Amino acid sequence: MLIRDQKIFEDLLDRCREQGSFAFDTEFLRENTYWPELCLIQIGIEGEAFAVDPLAEDIDCGPLFELLCDPGVEVIVHAGQQDMEIFFCKSEALPLRIFDTQVAAALLGLGDSIGYSRLVDELLEIRISKGEARTHWERRPLTDRQLDYALNDVLYLERMRDILKEKLGELGRAGWLEEELTFYQDSELYRRDPMTIYPRVKGAARLDRRELAILRFLAAWREEEARGKNKPRKRIVSDDKLIEISRRKPSSIERLGESRGMHR
Fold first, then answer.
1. pLDDT tens, 109-125?
2. Within 10 Å of residue 241's Cβ, how many Cβ atoms?
3. Domain with 70 in it
4. 189, 211, 241: which is the final residue of a domain?
5. Could you tell me if 198 and 182 lie in one domain?
6. In this predicted model, what pLDDT tens digit does every residue of 28-48 receive, in sequence order?
7. Residues 182 and 199 in one domain
8. Exposure class string for 3-42: b at 16+ Cβ within 10 A, else e
9. DSSP code of 181?
10. C-beta atoms surrounding 46 within 10 Å
11. Do residues 61 and 114 make contact, with C-beta atoms less than 8 angstroms apart?
């Protein structure tokens, strides 16, 4: 079911609040932007799955932001960092109660970053298709195949949460999970200090100390430009160009400005 009506959407959110938990996922694009563009919201509750169209004229996501921050409601996700980043960017709010099935699975020795479909197979012995992962979520209308794929991403989260909780409890590791999941309340997870970005530049590990100091400045500059212009980092200047300039060791801001590729 694809919800495009605000009243139906809010009725679903009220149901989630009354239940005290719900499964949550999103589909988004960020190929041509710095900030992720929300294209679809998926909600699972009591074995049912619903899709909400945030691009519909009548849909206001404000009530969803409030629900995500409600301390009385547990939000069940699988590797939900990017999903929460979208809502932090739009609301500056942080989720308070997250159950991340990927993190829970890691604490049970099922792999540090096990995928959703593999975990469904591991815990529930159900095979699901991941064939629509790179689809055009911004296009309308969505196909039945797209919706089936999207709904599957929340359909099994509640059952997996229950199994993982039980197994963690049996091993005395429930407290471990609570501790591990505190990172979701750190705003740095969603909006990092630009001066800390440079280690993520491809090739940074091969630079010497002085070159790294230059790269730190360059990567911070690129990050701020990308955020301000809402463009992907590579559209501002590529990683290769940042490494090249860092190795050149420009002696001044003026010389830096002479480097080709710094004003793209």
1. 999 999 999 999 999 99
2. 18
3. 2-189
4. 189
5. no
6. 998 899 999 999 999 999 999
7. no
8. bbebeebbebbeebbeeebbbbbbbbeeeeebebbbbbbb
9. G
10. 11
11. no
